[in-house]
């Protein structure tokens, strides 16, 4: 008799499958945007990077992080992507072999803003003072 595998704890991060599917979707969306497959004046006027796609554990929802080059017109680009969501979802379904086409949502990638905020914090006098004290102790 086969025994059921049971996990008492949830995994710390996304599964390998979720990561792999997210990467496939990222490549598909980036290719569509690069080739100009989405006919929208706002999208045609911007170079858009797709740095990450996060999938839910059941692979039913893909959160696609995007950033226009230079970080300008982020809201306009997100609105244009939302307008073309149905087309993009259909194209993803054709390009990525999944049982179900995941629902998609778009978010602005804020990693650069966060990195800049941390960089500014590290340069503040209080942090510099603490760093110099710690280096002096060693």
Quick structural summary:
The protein is of the alpha+beta class and 138 residues long. The chain contains 6 helices and 3 strands; from the N terminus they run H-H-E-E-H-H-E-H-H. The chain starts with 15 loop residues before the first helix and ends with a helix.
Which strand order does the major sheet show? 1-2-3
Mean pLDDT over the full residue set? 85
Strand content: 15-25%
How many E strands?
3
Shape: flat
Low-confidence stretches: 4-9
Quaternary: single chain
User: What is Rg?
Assistant: 20 Å
Count of runs of 4 or more consecutive helical residues? 6
What structural class do the secondary elements suggest?
Answer: alpha+beta
Q: Note the main sheet.
A: 3 strands, mixed
**Euclidean distance between termini CA atoms:** 61 Å
Helix content: 40-55%
Q: What is the string of SSEs from the N terminus onward?
A: HHEEHHEHH
Structure, explained:
- With 138 residues, this protein is an alpha+beta fold.
- The chain contains six helices and three strands, in the order ααββααβαα.
- A three-stranded mixed sheet has the order 1-2-3, with helices on one face.
- Strand 1 (48-55) and strand 2 (61-68) form a beta hairpin.
- The model is unreliable at 4-9 (pLDDT under 50).
